[in-house]
Amino acid sequence: MPKGHNSSREYSNSLTINYVFYCYLLSVNMDIAFKLFIIILVSYGFSRLARRFHLSEVIGMIVAGLLLTVPLAYEHLIFGHEAMVNGLATLGLITLMFLAGFEVSGNLLFKEEKDAIIVTLFTLFTSLFIGTIVFVLLDFGLPTAIIMGICFGVTAEGTKARVLLQLKKLKTKLGALLMGTGIINDIIGVFLLLLVSYIFTKGFQVSELLTLFAVLLAFFTGMMAHYSLDRFSAKLKRIEKLLLFTLVPFFFVNMGIKFDFHSLKLDPWILLAVFLTATLSQILGVFLTKPITRLRLKQLFLVGWGMNSKGAVELAIAYIALNIGLLPPTLYSALVVTALVSTMLFQIIIFRMVKKNPGIMD
Question: Which of the ends of the chain has fewer CB neighbours closer than 10 A, N or C?
Fold first, then answer.
């Protein structure tokens, strides 16, 4: 069957799922249901557009979330319904973490276990150290600086998986290495968030504790589901799409509500500091592993940019840290922009490097 026909059928199925999901809402409140459906439709459209340009669906959802919260859209779609959107966003966050865990494949971790652990530890702690030092010197306070370091050190397995699948390089040496680092990074990053939050917030409120517990539970439930279920069955794919396109968009909409365009305009130097610190610390961490991993310089450069690919877990950590008061809106907004730019740069760089040197990942 032609590829275009499969794509059209997938689009039709997804719209049908979304239509059925929102039908029952029409009987409750037609106005609210219509607004929710518009949000889901815009988010779905941008995720499809992102995939057309070989970008992660997460990138499309981030852009949709930002556009849906500009003043005109906010006034017509969200104003007056903020509490409902916030509640749906919490469900979306938990769903996103479940799907992030569901992407995890231990087989790829064990394939390049030694190098994956080495690269993960070097990049994570290099980013944590440099990020903490830089933002303490910028007078943001130790808890905020540590959170920034954690966010810099976390990478995205799901984003890299899609790119590697498109390139047909998932089962190469560097493909397995990049995937393995994403798995370890996600797990360490979530636990570090929990530890830092507990130490510096002087105890949790019940709602914060429940959210953090739900995030952790969802992530590890997703991991277990990956092993116990047929990850690639048609039925599970439909369920995954149902979750992805009916709940997750509200996390990104709420992320857009909390995004502070004005603060970035006032202090673009902070945005530059965030982007450079995040990018250079990850690349430096990878190059520090050269005597141990024996990867070639070009391979180290590619892996460095791979580690800069960001996704669900980094954004979830930043979002939770913002909500519990460990991250100011300026830095949160800068992290969102950095996630967008660095992920797109990784995808551009890896496509070009593989095109010039097809054997670089072997």
Answer: N
For residue 139, the 8-state DSSP code is: T
Span 231-249, mean pLDDT?
Answer: 77
Residue 361 counted as domain residue: no
Residue 129: the pLDDT is 94
What pLDDT was estimated at residue 170?
Answer: 63
Only one residue has tokens 């072997």, namely: 362
pLDDT tens, 320-339? 888 888 888 889 889 888 88
Contacts within 8 Å (CB) and 24+ apart, 211-214:
211/90, 211/93, 211/320, 211/323, 212/320, 214/94
Please give the pLDDT value at position 149. 92
What CA–CA distances, in Å, run from 47 to 57, 65, 161, 252?
A: 5, 11, 16, 12
Task: Give which of 101, 102, 99, 103 is closest to 247, Cα–Cα.
Answer: 99
Count other C-beta atoms under 10 Å from residue 335's C-beta. Answer: 27
Q: What is the pLDDT of residues 75-84, one digit of tens each?
A: 888 888 888 8
Task: Tell me how far CA of residue 186 lies from CA of 104, 150, 198, 230, 328, in angstroms.
Answer: 10, 10, 19, 22, 23
Quote the number of domains for the chain: 1
Q: Residue 101: give its domain's CATH number.
A: 1.20.1530.20
Domain boundaries, position 13: 3-356
CA distance 224 to 98: 10
Q: Is residue 362 part of a domain?
A: no
Instruction: Please report whether residue 201 resides in a domain.
Output: yes
Query: 86 near 273, Cβ under 8 Å?
Result: no
Read off the amino acid at residue 16. Answer: T
Please say whether the beta carbons of 226 and 103 come within 8 A: yes
Q: Does 343 map to a domain?
A: yes
Q: Are 342 and 308 in contact (CB under 8 A)?
A: yes
- Is the distance from CB of 144 to CB of 327 less than 8 angstroms? yes
Q: How many secondary structure helices (H) and strands (E) does the chain include?
A: 19, 0
pTM, two decimal places: 0.76
Taking the C-alpha atoms of residue 96 and residue 228, their distance in angstroms, rounded to an integer, is 19
